[in-house]
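Table S7 (text form). Paired inputs.
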Amino acid sequence: MLDLLRKIKKQFEERNKTFLVLDIFFSGLTIFIALRLLFVSISALSRSDVSIDPSTSLMIGMLFCLGLTFVVRVVEMIVTRKKEYFISLLLTTVFILAVTVYMFLLEYIL
């Protein structure tokens, strides 16, 4: 347990504070929206007449915030010139944002 706390403290000291705050903010927002999506979905299961389905909007918002979290990490890696896992993180970011745009286009445009 103490080893884990030392590791977290070491990462906190090494990271740029601006990127850390943005990372925590978007991660927290993603978790908040995911929990809200869970409660909305559970309440929709108990009702038989669902006229407006906000779960798709919440899903798009959650994926967008998750994509922004990964964008912050990619930008931080570019700024600090870290190359470990850069390509996989960049591909993951592009994939999440592409899925978000695709879902947005299906729901609101098409």
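Next pair, protein 2 of 2.
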Amino acid sequence: MKTHPFDWIILIIIVVGLGTWAFTNYGIIHEKHLTEATITEKTHGEKGYFITVDDQQLHVKDTNTWMVLTSGESYDISYEWYGNTHPYIVQINQAHDEDSVGGGH
């Protein structure tokens, strides 16, 4: 059986294409920041605690943070996701709140 250069070219294109797809979906963490985003719904279940903002469901990993959040209130939200995971909240703060978390003098 004889291999042709065309077979190798097709194989290289497929490998590069699959590698690029895998890297962009699972190797890169996507990040987004929302200002004055209003929480429309809070839900929880077996998969965790979630809030709905701009028709998108965001995972709140910290239960205490989820309990403090109020539906109908505006927040500045930063969230991340990669691959097929639910977007999860990295940082959240009340809108127009210039204080940093942690207090100070």
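Residues 37 and 48 are 21 Å apart (CA to CA).
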